[in-house]
Amino acid sequence: MIRKIGFVIASLIVTGMCAQDGSISPYSYFGLGDIREVGTVENQMMGDIGVYADSIHVNLKNPAAYSKLGVSGRDDFGITTYTAGLSRKQLRFKSFAEEQSSAVINLDYLALALTLKEGLGLGFGLRPYSSVGYNFEDLRGVEGSRILNQYSGEGGLNKVFVSAGYELLKDVSIGVTVNYNFGTIESLRVQSTEGVQFGAKDRRESRIGGFDLNYALNYTPAIDKDHTLYTSLRVNTQANLSARNTQQIGSFALSSNQDIEIIDVNLERQGLKDTGVKIPTTGTLGIGYGENLKWFLGAEYSYQQLGDYENEFLSSDNLVYNNASTFALGGFITPDRNSFESFFKRVTYRAGLRYAKTGMVINNKDVNNLGITFGLGLPLGRSFSNLNLGFELGRRGTSAADLIEESYFKINLGLSLSEQWFRKRRIN
After folding, report:
1. Computed from CA positions of residues 310, 315, 320, 322, in that sequence, does the dihedral angle turn out positive or negative?
2. Which helix (H) or strand (E) holds 241?
3. CB of 159 within 8 A of CB of 172?
4. Which whole-number Å values give the CA distances from 50 to 47, 59, 176, 418, in the listed order?
5. Apex CA 49: angle with CA 44 and CA 50, to 5°?
6. Averaged confidence pLDDT in the chain
7. Where are the domains of the chain?
8. How, if at all, do strands 274-279 and 239-253 pair?
9. Separation between Cα atoms, residue 196 and residue 417, nearest integer Å
10. How far apart are alpha carbons 65 and 51 in whole angstroms?
11. Signal peptide position in this chain (predicted)?
12. What is the pLDDT of residues 231-263, one digit of tens each?
């Protein structure tokens, strides 16, 4: 037990030290990058809803769900769960004139959860919040004096989190997650003009850090002997992050690509050395109905007043933020969890649908995202552990107004390893 906890802690440290280039999307140019804050593979394959809670799965989206971990009504209720998720995303980019394809592999989360006592659970881990990874060009003007702008960027933000869930009353659970956000975003703009032997560079770096909180309230009354109504209210509070910024500008020779002169910009004089980054509050309502560990169907609606987003140093002229919202629908079915005759009856089948208005308006065009999800939860022996395989088909953006339409196919692989860590001694 102790060795396993030590291994997970060491893994978290190593993972945190290794920055991920988790995006290849041109939309990661905007704001803090491509938002990648998702739930476990189990959640993602149900449209990424977080209203459902059970005794054997970690729910990263809903801290109140930690109160359900463990085998209720037994002396050996305690469960420790290790969970990790990987994904491979294949993207096709389509503009008005051409198409391109690429792919990226990411670690999506790494976490540990355990039961402290019946009705009280604790979890901690690491997961990304956003990723920056883009490289594109913009050529304008008439032949002979055209101006070429080349944009590239990398980095992003990660979250280290600690969560706790507690069953306050019968059928009523509360929870809180404390997130520490950290990371660096780097961007480079290179400009050159036809017929001119020198070009210009603008390199910017922003080191960002700060806390935010995620509160949850679950109400799960029994409708009858077998069926339960699942409801949740979650509020991810406004994140007021701090950023330490640097900027360099200079010139270079086009023939050799050698820098000629690079100057550190005095951002302190402009009031941009230390700035704030405000990520507005997100509220989520969820409702569902089902039979514990057998079947479930639920829906969620999230709303964020993204028009209040602020990042003075990393801003874009052609981007406006409107309020963002997401509607998701999903569920699962396990034909017979205890079947001895058929492995496939013990498999959990999941599916979902998600439509998001991202709140980004670029060149006066809304950028929306539609995804269809489905997958399998494969039991590992007769234990509580399982291997989760998921798929997502989706489309984001549009090829109109000089924008890019992204079509993507995402493969998710998640591992959930659970064991009972406390057994009361019995004397025969």
Report:
1. negative
2. strand 239-253
3. no
4. 9, 7, 14, 20
5. 110
6. 90
7. 2-420
8. antiparallel
9. 61
10. 8
11. 1-19
12. 999 999 999 999 999 999 999 998 888 999 999
Percent of the chain with pLDDT over 90: 75
Task: Say if CB 416 and CB 58 are below 8 A apart.
Answer: yes
Nearest 5°: the CA angle 210, 216, 218 is 170
Write b or e for each residue in 133-152: b if 16 or more Cβ atoms lie within 10 A of its Cβ, otherwise e. bbeeeeeeeeeeeeeeebbb
- Place 6 in a pLDDT band, splitting at 50, 70 and 90: very low
Condensed to tens digits (0 to 9), the pLDDT of residues 131-167 reads: 999 998 888 888 878 999 999 999 999 999 999 999 9
Of residues 350, 304, 315, 357, the one with CA closest to residue 329: 350
User: Which two tokens mark 395?
Assistant: 């489309």
Chain segment 202-216, per-residue pLDDT in tens: 999 999 999 999 999
User: Identity (one letter) of the amino acid at 228?
Assistant: T
- Residue range 2-420 in CATH 3.10.450.50: no
Cα–Cα distance, 159 to 125 (Å, whole number)? 8
Q: Taken in order 235, 237, 238, 242, is the CA torsion positive or negative?
A: negative
